[in-house]
Structures are given as structure tokens and as C-alpha cells.
Write a structure and sequence with these properties.
By secondary structure, this protein is α/β, with parallel strands linked by helices. The chain has helices at residues 2-8, 18-24, 50-62, 94-111, 127-137, 139-155, 194-200, 236-247; strands at residues 11-17, 29-33, 40-44, 67-72, 88-90, 120-125, 161-167, 185-189, 215-220, 224-229.
């Protein structure tokens, strides 16, 4: 029992408190605990630093020893270094990735064991593009994929399952049954439009500041609104190599 409790406490550093950095030039970490915050929404316009931030987040997430599923629908070159990893999916294969993740979740749910010691996280880059593409081919199938994501967002926390979606515009049409409200953390990089503010942070008082790439605001369940900044990655190849080594541990 003690080992299980220890395993549950997985802390992920998601960036630094930007307001503290501006005032004191101190890197005060913003952190989430996976057992209570397994699902995250990362948004921002093109050029806001989403891919850069996602690599930083992947490194911190994998340090917790999670089982990662990664869907790269647009085959972005930013994540080409993940090719060869068994749970890395691109373009139409993202259907297989989502289905495998969902099936594993349902197996856990049907087993009657809420948490078995390992967190399972699905990271889906450009989820709206995937849904739009599938809607053009088979509208019923697209709705089924949205429902699968919605179910995990609503029920996955108890079983150690979470979803991290990455998108430019957090429109509710890409998520069914109010799933957007079931993320435990949201990060928005760059400067938000009025529509984005109303969709994600309605009723919240946001700082009046102009943000550069890699800077923005976040909301963490139980903490509230914070300004966030991602540190400069001075050696991206080394970071990518570290991520790869954590996905493919040596025997």
C-alpha cells in the first residue's frame, strides 16, 4: 500500500511563474500532480511556442515514468525524432493510437482496479485537424472519437489515465459533452483573442500583458490563474535524445 501511495505522487514541472520572474528574476516552478491533474490542454496561435513548450513538457512528464501515447496528426517535423517508438502515431494511424489508448482505459475500468501503479497519458497534437479530417470521411466515426476523448477526460483520473490535447483554437465543437471543462490544467501561450478568453477563462481576471513566444497564462485546478514562462532550451538535440531514451529504455 505504501508503494502504491508513493507511486501516485508524480509531480510534473510545467514551467515557471512568469510574474515572479519579472519581479525577482527567480525561476519559481509551476507544478502539477498527475494523480489529481492528469489531463491538460495546451493552446496558442501559430508561432506562440506550442511545439517548443510541448517538448519541454514531454521531458518532464516522462521523468515520472508514464506510459505515453503520442499522436502527431500533421506529421510535424518537430516530433520526427519519436519515429520508431511503438506508441507514436501519425496521420491516419492516429485512429489506431486513440483506439489503443481507449481500449487500455476500458480494460482498466472493467478490471475493477482504479489505479495499478502506472499513469497512461495520450498526447494528441493538432486534435482539431484530426477531427475535421475524420468528419469529412465519416461523421459518425468522428463523433465517436470525440466521445472517447470526452469519456477519458471525465472518468480517467481515478484510473491513472489522462489526455493532453494541443490545438490553436479551443473550440468546443472539437470536444463533446462539455469535455473542455474537464481538463485539470490549461496553458495558453501568446496573446489571446477575445473568443479564446471567453472559451477558456470566462469569469477569470487575466493580466494585461503582451506575451512573447513561450509566455502566456495557465489555469491549474485548485490554484487558479498564473502567468507562465517556459525556459530557453539551449541544446534541443540533447533534450530530444533524453526524451527518446526515456521512451526506449535499455534492457
Amino acid at each position: 500500500m505504501l508503494a502504491l501511495v508513493k507511486e501516485k505522487r508524480k509531480i510534473v514541472k510545467i514551467g515557471y511563474d512568469y510574474a515572479i520572474w519579472l519581479l525577482y528574476r527567480l525561476k519559481m516552478a509551476l507544478m502539477i500532480e498527475l494523480c489529481s491533474h492528469p489531463s491538460l490542454l495546451l493552446t496558442g496561435s501559430s508561432g506562440s511556442g506550442k511545439s517548443y513548450a510541448l517538448k519541454y513538457l514531454l521531458d518532464k512528464l516522462l521523468a515520472c515514468g508514464v506510459t505515453l501515447y503520442f499522436c502527431n496528426f500533421k506529421r510535424s517535423d518537430d516530433f520526427r525524432f519519436l519515429e520508431g517508438y511503438e506508441r507514436y502515431f501519425t496521420y491516419t494511424a492516429c485512429i489506431d493510437g486513440l483506439q489503443q489508448f481507449y481500449d487500455t482505459f476500458k480494460e482498466r475500468q472493467n478490471s475493477g482496479v482504479e489505479f495499478a501503479g502506472t499513469f497512461h497519458i495520450l498526447v494528441f497534437d493538432e486534435f482539431p485537424a484530426f477531427i475535421l479530417s475524420e468528419t469529412l470521411k465519416d461523421k459518425k466515426a468522428a463523433e465517436r472519437y470525440k466521445t472517447m476523448v470526452s469519456e477519458v477526460l471525465m472518468l480517467g483520473r481515478s484510473y491513472g489515465f489522462g489526455i493532453w490535447l494541443v490545438m490553436q483554437r479551443p473550440d468546443s465543437s472539437f470536444l463533446s459533452n462539455g469535455a473542455r471543462d474537464n481538463f485539470h490544467s490549461t496553458i495558453t501561450l501568446g496573446n489571446m483573442s477575445k473568443e479564446a478568453k471567453s472559451m477558456l477563462y470566462s469569469g477569470e481576471e487575466l493580466p494585461e500583458r503582451v506575451y512573447k513566444a513561450g509566455e502566456g497564462v495557465c489555469w491549474i485546478d485548485g490554484i487558479g490563474i498564473k502567468e507562465i514562462k517556459f525556459p530557453k532550451i539551449r541544446d534541443m538535440p540533447s533534450l530530444e535524445a533524453r526524451i527518446s531514451s526515456r521512451l526506449r529504455p535499455r534492457p
